[in-house]
From TrEMBL:
EC identifiers of the protein: 1.2.1.3
Annotated Aldehyde dehydrogenase domain residues: 21-486
Catalyzed reactions: an aldehyde + NAD(+) + H2O = a carboxylate + NADH + 2 H(+)
Active site: E254
GO-annotated molecular function: aldehyde dehydrogenase (NAD+) activity; metal ion binding
Pfam family, one: Aldedh
Protein name listed in UniProt: aldehyde dehydrogenase (NAD(+))
Gene3D superfamilies: Aldehyde Dehydrogenase, Chain A, domain 1, Aldehyde Dehydrogenase, Chain A, domain 2
Upper classification of the organism: Eukaryota, Fungi, Dikarya, Ascomycota, Pezizomycotina
């Protein structure tokens, strides 16, 4: 095999890296150069069975381990994640193409924060049930019990963060997990599994299998899987949820969006432009919560666009490992085609006005910044968009902003809600009352006021409508990983019976 930056990536179960029974490999590619980074072992159905068997063996003991003791193990993993932040961030940058300036400050950090949050939550009694006194001699108590073996399926945009956002509450609650990363960005999987083992996680509690949709489908429909937590596209989520429904499995679905960002007339325009840029160009636009439909008052359009074009000069492409780079390539050749296809459609069919960007491959900013054969696309802004345009209706998942103008706030809110998706929404204004009133009317599970994209461990996040089922993170996030048992205790010494007399 040709030389690769990383050694071949294995499957991981029973606490160790494992080869595949099928001896099949696929390559993972560096999107900034289009060169292979590593050969990755692809799981066969027998391998998935073995990983599930490993998780099943580990479950009885891990679920009975006292929460405080589970928390101690997970907190050791948090310390290791923080100590290895830069090394893991580099892995993510190589695999996703996202700039190191992002991955070293967001991806691993926010994953570790969530692990710490759930470890502290369960260690501090967060899994305790409730007691309700019914009568003097009768009460109800509830217990929150772990579900069993859970499947985690990740998307490619925030690989290690997604793996941690799923495994943290899952393991803290006493479940075991078989995790499948996207085959587009699988590098982090084995690193994370090894780190958990080093932290003292017993063999079989966290397992990794690699492969494409067929492997994911086999895993999520497996009869020994009690719950599926999925992050990905709506269309894939529908398939996974249907197959899980057949087995009455618990599901969490974190799916796509086409989120509205509404700028109110009294706004500080510079803040609004900063927000709109973060909501469209961070991670090269590959963020599920992106505010890609930017509603601007007609009277502010010219000023907004002028300030936006000025600030677009601050987008710096180049070597993603250079800390001054803030805009990387998109993740794969296939995704580049998809994003360019939408830009082409916007120009040729939708006939939106192209304010900046477009189809041309961006030029390297300097002779030293070799952008090679990477999957580069220009940050693109369309204006004078109409609600009926395809670029306004469908999730592009790339750096493409659509500006829509409005005359009246009620009209903007109505148009913002006129979509099947409901992941995120936000409003920029100096008027406190208008902010809360507008946010209250927006149909989305994640909303921001004068901010965009921050998603701390304490904040429960999840989509409405076709954007998902359930939430991740925050206190409510643990509920998705336990089942409730209610017990009524009667100490009266008599059973109230309808059958005591003839
Ligand atoms: P996909 O739906 O294509 O894939 C997601 C995962 O599902 C991958 O691991 C994929 O494997 C796997 N998969 C594919 N087919 C099946 C199947 N039939 N059964 C089980 N698993 C399957 O999504 P993308 O990877 O393209 O991710 C981008 C999408 O994710 C966007 O829509 C984005 O909005 C959404 N997303 C949502 C988030 C949220 O929190 N709401 C967060 C991040 C992203 P493989 O890749 O190997 O084919």
């Amino acid at each position: 095999m040709a030389s690769r930056r990383y050694p071949a990536r294995q499957l991981y179960y029973d606490g160790e890296p494992r080869p595949s029974t099928a001896k099949r490999f696929f390559e993972t590619i560096d999107p900034s150069t289009s060169k292979p980074l590593a050969d990755v072992v692809c799981a066969s159905p027998a391998d998935v069975d073995a990983a599930i068997a490993s998780a099943s063996r580990a479950f009885p003991s891990w679920s009975k381990t006292p929460p405080a003791e589970r928390a101690r193990v997970l907190l050791r993993a948090v310390a290791l994640l923080r100590a290895r932040n830069d090394q893991l961030a580099a892995v993510e940058t190589h695999d996703t193409g996202k700039p190191l300036s992002e991955t070293s400050t967001v991806d691993v950090v926010t994953g570790a924060d969530v692990l710490e949050y759930f470890a502290n939550l369960v260690g501090g009694g967060g899994l305790n049930g409730e007691t309700t006194q019914l009568r003097e001699d009768a009460w109800v108590y509830t217990r929150k019990e772990a579900l069993g073996v859970c499947a985690g399926i990740g998307a490619w945009n925030y690989p290690i963060q997604i793996a941690l956002w799923k495994s943290a509450p899952c393991l803290a609650a006493g479940n075991t997990m078989v995790y499948k990363p996207s085959e587009v960005t699988p590098l982090h999987g084995q690193f994370l599994a090894e780190l958990y083992t080093e932290a003292g996680l017993p063999p079989g509690v966290f397992n990794v299998i690699n492969g494409g949709g067929d492997v994911g489908s086999y895993l999520t429909s497996h009869p020994r899987v009690a719950k599926v937590s999925f992050t990905g596209q709506v269309s894939t989520g529908q398939k996974v949820a249907s197959s899980a429904a057949g087995g009455m499995k618990y599901v969490t679905m974190e799916l796509g969006g086409k989120s509205p960002l509404i700028i109110l007339p009294d706004v500080d325009l510079d803040i609004a432009v900063d927000g709109a840029m973060m909501a469209n160009f961070f991670s090269t636009g590959q963020v599920c919560t992106n505010g890609t439909r930017v509603f601007v008052p007609k009277s502010l359009q010219a000023d907004f666009e002028k300030r936006l074009l000025d600030k677009m000069q601050h987008v710096r492409m180049g070597d993603p490992t250079d800390m001054s780079t803030n805009f990387g390539p998109v993740v794969s050749a296939q995704h580049l085609e998809k994003v360019l296809g939408y830009i082409r459609h916007g120009i040729e069919v939708d006939k939106a006005s192209l304010l900046c960007g477009g189809l041309k491959k961006p030029a390297a900013p300097s002779a030293s910044a070799d952008m090679g054969d990477g999957y580069w696309v220009q940050p693109t802004v369309f204006t004078n968009c109409k609600d009926s345009m395809r670029i306004v209706q469908e999730e592009i998942f790339g750096p493409v902003m659509c500006i829509l103008t409005y005359e009246d706030v009620n009209e903007a809110v109505e148009r913002a809600n006129n979509t099947q998706l409901g992941l995120a929404a936000g409003v920029f204004t100096k008027d406190l009352n208008a902010a809360h009133k507008t946010v209250a009317r927006l149909q989305a599970g994640i909303t921001w006021v004068n901010s965009w994209g921050e998603s701390p461990a304490e904040m429960s996040v999840g989509g409405w409508k076709m954007s998902g089922v359930g939430v991740e993170n925050g206190r409510r996030g643990i509920e998705a990983w336990v089942r409730n048992k209610s017990t009524l205790v009667d100490m009266s010494g008599a059973v109230a019976t309808a059958f005591s007399k003839l």
